[in-house]
């Protein structure tokens, strides 16, 4: 319930119940707004055969990339995978099943899943390999393919600030996929930089209402940059 205190005291509590073979939805874009401490906890737990849904799979040695090192991911559903050499190796060797999905379609798959919509039509991918084997229809003279929505056993999310009840605010572009991910998990776990008492946050500024959040934890974050570019 929205008025229930969602805070937990440890990352072990935050991911209690996560087991082998589950589907995990992860927020973030590149390394921006990723739930880095929750990912690290999944690594410590050693759970395996996971299906992970996220925009990308982190980089070698950080973000979701650390789960590849221990072969914890069986299937990856993502839209961009170009920054991770170990990902490439596992894909080409057949160790990792990969479902490449257009970025907007991936976002809508999770948004629709969180809204209880089982499938939707989109023009993206029609006439390409993405559309092969999928139902298609014509609306207004344009062709569309049917895409099924996505939900997960766990959704792991990175926020900026939240109150005890799990009402979450994201900071700038770190919002990215996180709001859609937060709605689509059977158990949604959010880690934030700051937790404040109820009544502190402006209701008009809330991005994810607490009704979607099951567990909330405050962490400290490295916020690593993928590619640092500076003037010479």
UniProtKB/TrEMBL annotation:
Family, per entry: Belongs to the 3-oxoacid CoA-transferase subunit A family.
Organism superkingdom: Bacteria
Pfam families: CoA_trans
Molecular function terms from GO: CoA-transferase activity
Protein name as annotated: Putative CoA transferase, subunit A
Alphabetized SUPFAM superfamilies for the sequence: NagB/RpiA/CoA transferase-like (SSF100950)
Transmembrane parts of this sequence: none
Metal-binding keyword on record: no
Keyword hit for Transmembrane helix: no
PROSITE patterns per record: COA_TRANSF_1
UniProt entry keywords in alphabetical sequence: Transferase
Annotated NCBIfam families: pcaI_scoA_fam
Record InterPro entries: 3-oxoacid_CoA-transf_A, CoA_trans_fam_I, CoA_transf_BS, NagB/RpiA_transferase-like
